[in-house]
Amino acid sequence: MVRYKIVFEKKDCIGCGACTSQCPENWELIEGEDGFKAKPKKSEINDDEYSSNQEAADICPVDCIKIEKVKARKKIVEDFDQDLYEEA
Ligand code: SF4
Question: Of all atoms in ligand 1, which is nearest to the CA of residue 27?
């Protein structure tokens, strides 16, 4: 299963709430000293969660949400497991 990392530039967030409307499963607004800012509940998501988080990124008016595929870690584990099977 492919995993994705959420890259969020909090300093650019204007707290409009569009992402929380689009993807309330993973985005919430938190009030801080500098007003409301969005916050992802999870910084890493799976295939099932990708679409709604990508829609949140697409709808963000200041483009401060990016969704990136996580590659290396899973591949290393798969290669390691494959070596074990081949030696058994
Ligand atoms: S849509 Fe973008 S600017 Fe609006 S609250 Fe979410 S992250 Fe912040």
Answer: 6
pLDDT at 38: 98
Nearest-CA residue for ligand 1 atom 6 is: 19
Q: What is the pTM of this model?
A: 0.81
Q: What is the pLDDT of residue 57?
A: 98
CA distances for 19 relative to 33, 36, 62, 63, 88, angstroms: 20, 13, 11, 11, 48
Protein residue with its CA nearest to atom 4 in ligand 1: 16
Residue of minimum CA distance from atom 1 in ligand 1: 60
For residue 12, the tally of other CB atoms under 10 A from its CB is 12
Q: Which domains are present in the chain?
A: 3-87 (3.30.70.20)
Mean pLDDT by 10 residues, the chain (88 residues): 96 98 98 96 97 98 97 60 57
